[in-house]
Specification:
The structure holds two protein chains of two kinds.
Chain A: H1 3-18, H2 39-53, H3 59-64, H4 68-78
Helix pairs in contact in A: 1-2, 1-4
Chain B: H1 10-15, H2 17-26, E1 32-40, H3 45-57, E2 60-66, H4 72-78, H5 81-86, E3 90-94, H6 111-136, E4 140-143, H7 164-181, E5 185-188, H8 190-197, H9 199-202, H10 205-211, H11 220-234, E6 241-244, H12 255-258, H13 270-284, E7 291-297, H14 300-307, E8 321-325, H15 329-340, E9 347-350, H16 354-363, H17 375-384, H18 395-398, H19 400-414, H20 420-426, E10 430-435, H21 441-450, H22 463-471, E11 475-484, E12 487-500, E13 503-511, H23 520-535, E14 539-544, H24 556-560, E15 563-567, E16 573-578, E17 590-592
Parallel strand pairs in B: 1-2, 1-3, 3-4, 4-5, 6-7, 6-9, 7-8, 10-17, 13-14
Antiparallel strand pairs in B: 10-11, 11-12, 12-13, 14-16, 15-16
Classes of the chains: A mainly alpha, B alpha/beta.
Chain lengths: 81, 597
């Protein structure tokens, strides 16, 4: 999948999970930027991203991912045809 | 809500939980509030979030207490102030195989040592239950254990006493034994749910390692739905009626076109096998006290022909009402509800035709209409929705269909009499009205928690609370059974009065709508007044608390001869009557008692 398309779709997932209509995430977005994005919601976010893109993060990736950009890179890698 | 009925889209529910909750809170009224303490052995946050959605959808507005991480044992055994102040209506212990703290794999352990390990592990949990019972006296729901995702001993893990699978199975059996012997204790069968979901998927190990969730987070909706079904059943929110279409629902094909011989039922074809197993599944529900009825677009004669097919499992006698005509199905639903005096929001309607399902679910508020698709999926779809989740079972349940059928015969008999009093006499009614007793207590509680219409205060009691009333002399508590020449209706009425000096306050007055207009309420009042006189009580205070469903009894106390003393803007009323000068009102029922008062 193209990274642009992934970012677009990720924005939808963020809106759904946090139920905020006007949230906009970019590659640079980190958890501190979104008030609702705490450690509990992080689990739900990862789970929602996985089910949306039909892929799984490795445990190591989840614990080292620094921002949305890195998330996009992993999704792009894993959804490559 | 369709989103929350099986089969549902779990990831959608998880993603949209906030907006689903908003939608639920904006609609739906008259939910009962319940306090649920969740004592966890692993992370419970998302479980609670999703459980809340299912409960709201089932008419329960929950408030939650969650133990600190994995403090289930400490909370129950030592207690804490927050939990005590919370005063739960129900305690749910969320533990899993991750909490088998005392199991230790050791091939050198002797049989005695393994047995001791099993016993100690069991006692660890039993301590939780007995402490909850002592401290809170409320129902307990406890998970059993799911199987692990690996087997050190391979297939032998199940048979060798050292194996974890063997250990878990034995422990689960001990939990089940406790559940059999203790009322108000319910097992949430995660052993079954995890198997349905698929054990390998269930054990999302990274979710455990990182977040201490003992299951795949995507499994939480299925898990929470199963749990919510126990809770709604304990609080009297089970469905009561299974209303079925005929053509392509109970058999294959259209009987009006194909004739009796042409429909598919029996064992000749795959489709016939499917319908036969489904009919067996439906028929088994009669034994649980679930009522069956037919709602079909058919000529009546054709419908009966179909139900008399040589290979049919369900026969016309199995149904309390058969509506086979060309009316709209929502009309027929209302007609069935009226005929047997139960509300249509306790119905489950099964029809293969999406258009029929749609009209019924649009027109009949609160009715459950599962999305059954093809006969091979009927059972799974209905079963997993847990409409009839069994948490209490009484001897009356198995006879319920017969009772309702007898009622309809009575209605037929009624038409032959011009004078209603004469008709009542012809029924040769016999009632037994007396103080609560041990044997009746379960049914009294069950009836109390599901009566909505003929119910003055709609006060609900758990079995523990009912036991407290039973044992406390400051309450007058009577129940009534009613039989007549058509059959025994079983326990149909319950009255609880609280004594305060020489006055009595009626906390609870309810009756099954099966016995409306039979003077049973008069017989109950006669007996109550008799007891009051014996106890030197001179005034009875009656209360009517208005709900969406109990308008039929708003004037009951007036009819009894009470004087209305106040009426609130919200429709609540209070009443008062002097016992002096009261004359017995029942003229038709022969009443007995066992000298309980």
């Amino acid at each position: 999948m193209e990274k642009e398309a992934i970012l677009k779709k990720l924005n939808e997932v963020f809106r759904e999970v946090f139920d905020i209509d006007d949230v906009v995430v970019t590659r640079a977005t980190v958890a501190d930027d979104i008030e609702e994005w705490d450690s509990l919601e992080h689990i739900n976010l990862i789970s929602a991203v996985e089910s949306t893109f039909k892929m799984k993060f490795k445990m190591k990736e989840v614990s080292t991912m620094k921002n949305v950009g890195e998330m996009i890179d992993i999704i792009a890698e894993r959804t490559k045809l | 809500m369709k989103t929350l009925s099986y089969p549902f889209d779990s990831s959608y529910i998880l993603k949209k939980k906030r907006s689903i909750k908003k939608e639920l809170l904006a609609s739906g009224t008259g939910r009962i509030k319940k306090k649920i303490a969740v004592l966890g052995g692993s992370t419970t946050n998302e479980i609670v979030n999703i459980l809340e959605l299912f409960l709201l959808d089932q008419g329960i507005e929950p408030e939650f207490y969650q133990s600190e991480y994995a403090q289930f044992w400490q909370d129950a055994v030592f207690g804490n102030e927050e939990l005590s102040n919370f005063a739960p209506d129900i305690v749910y212990v969320h533990t899993t195989s991750r909490n088998l703290s005392l199991y230790d794999f050791s091939m050198s352990a002797s049989e005695e040592q393994i047995n001791e390990m099993l016993e100690n592990q069991y006692r660890h949990f039993e301590e939780v239950w007995t402490n909850v019972k002592e401290k809170f006296g409320c129902p307990v729901i406890q998970n059993n254990f799911e199987l692990p995702f690996y087997r050190i001993l391979g297939n032998k893990d199940a048979t060798d006493i050292h194996g974890k699978i063997s250990f878990i199975r034995r422990l689960n059996e001990k939990f089940a034994e406790y559940a059999r012997k203790n009322e108000n204790f319910y097992i949430n069968d995660i052993n079954f749910i995890s198997a349905c979901y698929g054990l390998e998927k269930w054990h999302d190990t990274s979710a455990w390692y990182m977040y201490k969730y003992a299951m795949d987070t995507q499994a939480i909706p299925e898990f929470a739905y199963n749990l919510s079904n126990i809770i709604k059943s304990v609080f009297g929110k089970n469905r009561k009626m299974l209303m079925l279409d005929l053509d392509n629902t109970l058999w294959g094909g259209v009987v009006g076109d194909l004739g009796q011989q042409g429909i598919e039922i029996g064992h000749e074809t795959g489709m016939a096998e499917g319908y036969t197993e489904f009919q067996r599944y439906v028929k088994a529900h009669k034994q649980l006290g679930v009522l069956l009825s037919v709602n079909s677009k058919n000529d009546y004669e054709n419908a009966i022909e179909g139900l008399k097919h040589p290979d049919t499992v369900l026969t016309p006698d199995d149904f309390v009402v058969i509506k086979a005509n060309w009316d709209n199905k929502d009309r027929n639903t209302e007609a069935i509800a009226e005929e047997i005096s139960i509300l249509p929001d306790s119905f489950v309607f099964v029809d293969d035709n999406p258009a029929e399902r749609n009209i019924v679910s649009e027109q009949i508020s609160g009715i459950a209409v599962p999305e059954v698709n093809s006969v091979e999926d009927y059972i799974k779809t209905i079963d997993r929705n847990g409409y009839f989740e069994l948490t209490s079972y009484t001897a009356d349940d198995i006879k319920r269909n017969e009772m309702y059928r007898a009622n309809i015969q009575r209605a037929g008999a009624e038409k032959k009499f011009s004078d209603y009093g004469e008709y009542l006499k012809s029924l040769e009614m016999e009632a037994y009205i007396d103080k609560f007793d041990d044997v009746a207590l379960a049914r009294i509680t069950q009836l109390t928690n599901k009566s909505n219409q003929f119910n003055l205060t709609t006060k609900r009691y758990t079995l523990n609370e009912m036991e407290d009333v039973f044992g406390d002399d400051k309450y007058i508590k009577i129940y009534g059974r009613l039989a007549d020449k058509f059959g025994d209706n079983g326990i149909v009425s319950v009255v609880i009065g609280r004594i305060d000096g020489n006055e009595l306050h009626i906390d609870l007055w309810l009756m099954s709508c099966r016995v409306l207009k039979r003077e049973m309420e008069y017989a109950m009042l006669d007996r109550l007044v008799e007891i009051c006189r014996k106890k030197g009580i001179s005034v009875i205070n009656g209360y009517y608390y208005k709900t969406a469903k109990n308008a039929m009894v708003k004037d009951l106390f007036n009819d009894f001869g009470f004087e209305m003393t106040s009426e609130n803007e919200n429709g609540d009323r209070t009443f008062r009557m002097n016992v002096d000068g009261y004359e017995n009102k029942n003229k038709s029922i022969n009443v007995k008692n066992n000298g309980g008062y």
